[in-house]
Amino acid sequence: MDSNLSQLNESNNSANYKELNMSNNPEDFGVLLISHGSSLPYAEKTFQTILNKYIEKTGHNTEVGYMKAAKPSIPEAIDNLLAKNNNIKRILAIPVFLAPGIHTNIDIPIMLGLDQLERDPRCPDGIYPEDHYLKESKPVEFSGEIDLMECIGPDPSIIDIINNRISSVIEGSAKNIGADKTAVLLVSHGSRLNYNREFITDIYNQYKNQSNYSAGQGFMELCKPTIAESINQMTENNEFERLIVVPVFLAPGVHTTRDIPNILGILDDDRTDSTHDHSHNHENSNHDNSHDHTHGDNVEFDGEILYCEPLGSDNIIIDIIENRIENRI
């Protein structure tokens, strides 16, 4: 073949590859991104962005499905995949969760019609109340293979996102405070199971080993140390002037926009920025939401508190998902 014609064909093939992928003709698989779901718009917006970025980058036939409280549900998302390509023989389902737990090991497998990965401590006999969301989930209508993958986990790339978040809030601060007077707290939700602790401890160790800042970890609820306990321990023998708090959550929501700021004493409905000079009192620890767990004492810190955004739809998250899928195709 003439070399110029060959190069032209290669160029055309490269240009048309994504278009072919987007039409789903060459694919016999679909990708299902699974999210928890929320009645608030934050999480849905984040996952829609993750979905759009992933499709733009890979061209894969992809949908996001929510466990509860948002649409489309997991079965509806699978219906959407099949509506775009009824030749799908395999669905690669990845829970876009940071840490494994009851949802990834029990709820999602059941919703997909698969065997759960462990016994449910909530209902050891496997009999759920009629109003339980697992009872309300309709069966998946798909005769092919569903490959349920592991969640994101403590991927080393997450440290890059954390470093970027920290750099961003420091750049937004008007104060010139050195690294020796700065502490970083990584905050996780907490769980009655050990998965969440294992995740955040791994992330914390990775972060600490490459950071010039003093670092700690704390849990919003259900685990020790609490956020306040961690901060008190970090500041007990150190005169820090700045505390940078990183919520190691995937999407913003009640916990990141209200619960954690309330614990830190920086909740102010009239302010939308993430930089706060800590001058609030700590007397009022009530939570204006329906979450009924206690979140521990509020913190006592007289310096500047910089509060970061969660991980969100960062391009690094997209890269992690893409690499997991590519290794499974």
UniProtKB/TrEMBL annotation:
Entry keyword Lyase: yes
Enzyme Commission identifier(s): 4.99.1.3
Highest taxon listed in the record's lineage: Archaea
Region Disordered: start-end pairs: 1-20, 273-296
Gene3D superfamilies: 3.40.50.1400
Keywords assigned by UniProt, alphabetized: Cobalamin biosynthesis, Cobalt, Lyase, Metal-binding
Biological process terms in GO annotation: cobalamin biosynthetic process
Single Gene Ontology MF annotation: metal ion binding
Entry keyword annotation includes Transcription: no
Biased composition (Low complexity): 1-16
A Pfam cross-reference name: CbiX
PANTHER family: SIROHYDROCHLORIN FERROCHELATASE, CHLOROPLASTIC
Protein name (Swiss-Prot/TrEMBL): Sirohydrochlorin cobaltochelatase
Organism expressing this protein natively: Candidatus Methanobinarius endosymbioticus
Upper lineage: Archaea, Methanobacteriati, Methanobacteriota, Methanomada group, Methanobacteria
